[in-house]
Predict the structure.
Amino acid sequence: MHRSRRYTAMGRINEIWMSFNASEKRNIFFYIGGIMMYKLGLEFFNGSITTLATDRFNSANTFTKLGAASGVNQAAQCVGAILIAPAVRRLPTRTVLAVAISIFALMTVILLIVDTATGGKLKQAGAAKPSYGDWNPNLIFVVWTLSGISYGMVELIRRVIPADIVGGDVSKLRRMDATVHIFYEVAGTAGAFASSSAISRFGNNYSFFLTPVFFVFAATSWTFISALNFKTHKDIQEELAQQGLGDVDLGKSTSQNYLVQIALGVRGFGESIYVGAKLVFTNRRFIWLFCAYSLALYMHRFLENSLAPAFAKRVLGTSAWSQIIVGGSNFGELLGAASVLVLSDVITTPVPWLRLDAILLNIVWILPTFARHATKDVSWACKIAACFIPISFGWAAGDVSLAAYIQSALSDSQYTHANVSALGAVMAFLYSSYIVTNAVLSSVLGKVFDKDFQQHGNILHALKTVGGAQFSIASAIILCATFIPRGAFALNPKALGTVGLKSPNAEVGSSEDADSENDEKDIKDGYPDTPVLEKISS
């Protein structure tokens, strides 16, 4: 009975919660409260601006522009991350996070102000479409770019603050990340469905009026988090003085000028991508991640940001219903994250989840069939949402477990570099690869939707090519990539090379040491003149 209970979701969550001390529980409580408010506001904004773009952009290039705007938004997130990084060193993380979300709230009201000032009105009950203000639809590019910068600020800090709350304990970090992800997706699912209802009732030019409200609630909740381990420059100097090191000048090592730190951040970001690319492409342990992580993430974003809006607008005739479809996708992510949490002791590597993800991508082939028979009824949006649940289930399970794999492979400082973190470099390269892929292909493939609609009055051909064919090719690539790491030919491998083995006291000459040496040999033999990262000798 006890053993079966361990593998229930509630029992697992309770076990995780009890592993934190009182201070950590308090901080996690306020952090999760804020993250749920943040996700609710984000779903209202993303749903509104996506449907607003599909309705306002010229029908001849609707999805070409939508893809371009989405790509620019994600590129702007990198800029936001660079801008906010120096602030994290100057102020407590909770303060920077609260300020960042407040700036995001201000960015989201720009369109509300512009639309009202130019004559826009709330959608009247029973009206077929909203009453838009007299403003150029290309303003969406500006707003989406500015909000992308703010979004990048928040997303960067979201990845920093968990370590501040629970310290460097990898086990606690994984437990916290999994728990937060579940609540995050609960809010995301509710927010997506609520956003669709708000768009239908108020119009997509006003439906996100709740976004700044939710963001303010998030900022308020996050201010209750402790200052954690933050220390001011003055505090550090006082500690050095007490240790007899009062003559140490911290200013010599790092400039306190914010602009200088931004410049250093830009250089560091570029170097991280360069080092990360060399580490990924010269090591068997990581080379498969380019397909398993970056390509899989692109397919998931294309599913939600391109296929869902295109089907809702061109097939169902109501752009607001794309949020119902996204709601199904978010629910699938929730189930995927929960499954990884519950089965973490049974499925110890990301390979089984990634193979499931690759197979489930082919469900997209059902969209052309649905498009032939669909009527302009909301029930069809619900049917598509149901189809998206298993697709996003596979992606979320693979993504969560893959993040743990990357962290395990690099968190022990097995690889080091003079200027950048190995973990940060790999993640910077993989995420940048996804952004570039998404920015280019979303716009290019958006033209396929536009051209197909202009020529045939429907998007059946586009759903087969941009949808089915593209996803099947990606499925094959991801599936093949899962066989690259050592030990991956097993149906449910317990370890990939040295990652996942619970033998910290392994003797010299063991298979673990052999795999480590082989991983290093992959670099030297394949690229003898490019020393990627030095390996720390034990």
